[in-house]
Amino acid sequence: MDVQVSVADLVRDLFEDQFGVERRTPATLFALLFRPGHLTREYLGGRIVRYIRPLKLYLVSSVVLFLLVGFFTMRGMDSIAEGYSGMQAGSANVRADPVAAQIQEGFRDAFGAGGVEAGRVIQPPAPGTAAPLPQAPVDTGASPAGDTVTVDAPVGSRLGDQAWFRDLTVNTGSAALDQRIRARVDRLGRMEPADAVRELLRTFLGYVPTLLFLLLPVFAGILKLLYIRTGTYYAEHFIFVLHTHAFVFGTFSLALVAAWAGLGLVAGLLQLWAGIYIFLALRRVYGQGHLKTAIKYWTLGWMYFWVLLLALVPVVILTLLVGG
User: Fold this and answer.
1) What share of the chain is helix, strand, coil (3-state, %, to 5)?
2) Contact 195, 80 (CB under 8 A)
3) Would you give the DSSP letter of residue 125?
4) Is it the case that residue 73 has pLDDT exceeding 60?
5) Nearest Cα to Cα of residue 81 among 104, 105, 109
6) Does 314 map to a domain?
7) Is 321 helix (H, G, I), strand (E, B) or coil?
8) What pLDDT digit, counting tens, does each position of 129-170 carry?
9) I need a surface site. Which of 52, 144, 255, 297 has the fewest CB within 10 A?
10) Domain assignment present for 166
């Protein structure tokens, strides 16, 4: 007997198998976004068939978030590069990108709105004229009177021409590591600023999802310490961590899209809801009073912050070591 299968059937089966789109996704997303702690309680109660599994939910939300972060970050860097090129050419065209607006504004202020450098006042260019490049004193030798004469010479736009780059010292305690980092920074210094930052950000963002995944057991261990007297198993804390991270990733994805669409108020409300949501989720899953939950919520936040900050140190080192 011949069986005919259409492409639409294959796609539907794929999504049903991987994400449970037809049956589980709407209920899962609603509970994840608007019912703090509900998914964890349902999972621990054995009611897991109607919802997407915690690990799969975490992985999908992580992929979506970091795809959006990478996309908007690269758009921001493109906007900055265009703005810088436009200032050098005297162009008044500025790309209107809500996500990159604040970064681009700071870049424009630093390079085109005047300032002080090496004791000299830098004036902004007049409308319709090209923005002059910063000048640096260059020793041209001795004058007839025997005095040293300095003249202003243009400083290039690359990182290697900036004072911070020339004075940068690397001291990690390992000579070999210092040498590799210095070589990497030297190579970045020969690139245009936007290209160098773009490469660093791309490398850094490639490591962050893996870092957060590896830290999940650590965050579950923190919860185990905070609720050690409740008799909750470590695996149950781990499920809670998966669900809360999936919620945070999903909320920040929506906030990024809202900011890109110019809905700054919506993006701010989503971030506010994220902070409230975690407190309510702790209350619902662990069943303790408001005061105890508030203390543990504050402690969890600080411990999360410091663990993440310390874990970012090797990521930064890897970013400097590994080039594209």
Assistant:
1) 65, 5, 25
2) no
3) P
4) yes
5) 104
6) yes
7) helix
8) 544 544 444 444 444 444 444 434 344 444 444 544 555 666
9) 144
10) no
List the structure tokens of 292. 């105890």
Helix or strand holding residue 141 (H, E):
strand 135-142
**pLDDT on residue 134:** 47
Q: What tokens does 58 get?
A: 């975490």
Q: What percent of the chain has pLDDT over 70?
A: 62
Query: Half-sphere exposure of 179 toward its Cβ, with a 13 Å CA cutoff?
Result: 3
Question: How is residue 122 annotated by DSSP?
Answer: E
Provide the residue type at 157 as one letter. S
SS3 90: coil
What is the per-residue pLDDT across 250-306, written as a single tens digit (0 to 9) for each? 999 999 999 999 999 999 999 999 999 999 999 999 999 999 999 999 999 999 999
Q: From CA 324, how far away is CA 320, in angstroms rounded? A: 11
pLDDT greater at residue 70 or residue 59: 59
Q: State the amino acid at position 153 in one-letter form.
A: A
**HSE on the CB side for 192, CA within 13 Å?**
10
Instruction: Tell whether 114 is covered by a domain.
Output: no
At residue 164, what is the residue type?
A: W
Of 161, 135, 170, 162, the residue nearest 150 (C-alpha): 135
Q: Do the Cβ atoms of 252 and 102 come closer than 8 Å?
A: no
Domain of 200 in residue numbering reads as 22-106+121-157+192-321
Q: The pTM is what?
A: 0.67
CA proximity to 120, closest of 132, 108, 130 = 132
Q: What angle do CA 290, 292, 297 make, to 5 degrees?
A: 90
Among 78, 107, 111, 110, smallest CA distance to 95 is for 78
Taking the CB of residue 270, how many other CB atoms lie within 10 A of it? 22
Number of domains in the chain: 1
| Per-residue pLDDT, 80 | 58
Residue 273 lies in a domain: yes
